Amino acid sequence: MAQARVGQHELYYERSGTGEPLLLIMGMSGTHLSWGEPFLDALRRDFEIVIYDHRGMGKSSRTEPPFSIADLAEDADGLLGELGWDTAHVVGISMGGMVAQELAIRHPERIRTLTLGCTYPGGEGAALTSPAVGEKLIGAMTSGDRERALRVGWEVNVSPGFAADEEQYTEFRRRALEVPANLPTIMAQIQACGLHDASGRLGEIAAPTLVIHGTEDEMLPFSNAELIARAIPGARLELLDGVGHLFFWEEPDRSAELVREHALAGATR
Fold first, then answer.
1. Is the pLDDT of residue 268 over 80?
2. pTM of the entire structure?
3. What range defines the domain where residue 164 resides?
4. Which letter does DSSP use for residue 35 in this model?
5. I need a labelling partner for 95 at 20 to 30 A (CA). Which of 31, 70, 121, 266 fits?
């Protein structure tokens, strides 16, 4: 557990495991706790992993919005420097996948392999959260009712069957309450996601790329993954049937195996 000074921000991070360096970039409203232990435990056997909180989130220092996805990509680049990692395997999910796209485009020398999960490229044909789901989620977040916000946040981020698992929800809720979200920063993240557009530059990504998406994703339709995989030369697409947005919560072992296989194959090139 440590803090890294990156520009004007103090970014909280945790480092664990042994092996190839792996940076995990979290999505909108998430913190370092949002990955869940089963997924991280499965990765620690083969990787030295770093998880962190974006500026303004979790245990990182507060920030004044607005900021862009490109700004968050520069934070990730700065963190890699503070870690002493010239290069790393990078996994970005949801908003973190947008950050990872920008990182790979702006700093290609940093990326050993790239995994983009449940994310969005921007541009023609891409689809953000539907108005109905967005209104439901924002209404819950701004209601002042924490329990409602947590429950709705859970339900729209996993598949219906998984949402009914009370044991899983209890763990999700516990982690969310341990490091509460910062609503002004979340709203700034939403704005940054809406302005993200890497679609015309994805062809510049040269790193071996894996794209993962659940077919029951309500937050970002899996058609985005198909667009991304077509745009990045040589990218591999893995669709997880019946799985929601937080695929690494629903299928932690399978998700970790996909990351492991992709990253270790890239390490031998």
1. no
2. 0.97
3. 2-267
4. G
5. 266
